[in-house]
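Researcher: Please translate sequence to structure tokens.
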Amino acid sequence: MHQLLNKFYLFIIVTVITGLVLTGCKKEKTPPPPPSGPPEVGVIVVKPENVSLTTELSGRTVPQMVAEVRPQVSGVIKKRTFVEGSDVKEGQLLYQIDPATFEAAFASAKAVQARVEATLTSARLNEGRYRDLVKIKAVSQQDYDNIYATLKQTEAELAVAKAAVETARINLAYTKVSATISGRIGRSTVTNGALVTANQPTALATIQQLDSMYVDVTQSTADLLKLKQNLANGVLKKSGSAQVKLILEDGSKYPLPGTLKFSEATVDQSTGSVTLRAVFPNPSQALLPGMFVRALLEEGINENAILIPQRGVTRNSKGEAMVMVIGAEEKVEPRPIKVVRTVADSWLVSDGLKAGDRVILEGLQKARPGTQVKAVPFGSAPTTPPGGPPQPAQPAKK
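Model: Translation complete:
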């Protein structure tokens, strides 16, 4: 019985092994994939275009008009008549200085003028009588000359008295401290009852005109000279109007454009830069004095600009800018180029490329120098799947 079981087990093992061997023999070999064609790369064709070039400079806002309110006579502030932070008009009363002493001085000057005028009337009458008497030799010429001199002296004293009256009147008027310009007034540095002095260094308040705002930015002299050279050589052409756009501190764009007014004639020796000033309308008073801003200035228009997206530009070991182009026989060629600056997400190329060149932007990992590639427009869907050409269907296993 035991021997019978051993033979049965042996028969089963031999049967299984035989089945596996036959199955392995029937397995068909998979044919090797056919050789794939040249790899596809996305390219753009170089076309010169019309590009408006701008430069971004940092600066600060400056009020177009500023007036520091200071007293022109000494005295005690009797009343303040404005609200801090409000808009005031030119000629509006801001402070009232106690006018009592100035009213008295004005009255005294007028009295002195009246006295001199009375003396002058008497002197003129005497001069008239003596003029008639000297003609008939009733008085000597010396007596007439003395009377005439007294008349002229009195006339001079009257002129002095009138000037004193005018001075007293002006000083009395100065007790009313008024706004010299229209604008927004800041905080007051004095209160009622404070003693102020004429032409004191500390301003009582400051008025700033905010309807339009200056923006002062600085530009290096090297950039300025390069810009002038490009304009002189014809690389750039002046645009119709020198408009300036503004970017605020939070990165938002100011909605209204400005105008470039002038460039400073003197170079700052400490920074080697010049100051440019632009003026911006500020109807909503969104711009406040002292704000940090960035100004976009129009330099000019390049009518034959070559722009290459930054993704297509690499650097070699020397730091030179390089692009891969498709040359003769559809083979990849490295091409050194010279880039000037960035324009949005592209490089502005000054040398190394010409119209009609095909620059590789997509598939650079497959674009080895000297290899043959298939050029397709950049951004189009690839015709060859990533794994190579499609494989033929395999027969079902039996």
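Researcher: Any highlights?
Model: The chain is about 25% helix and 35% strand.
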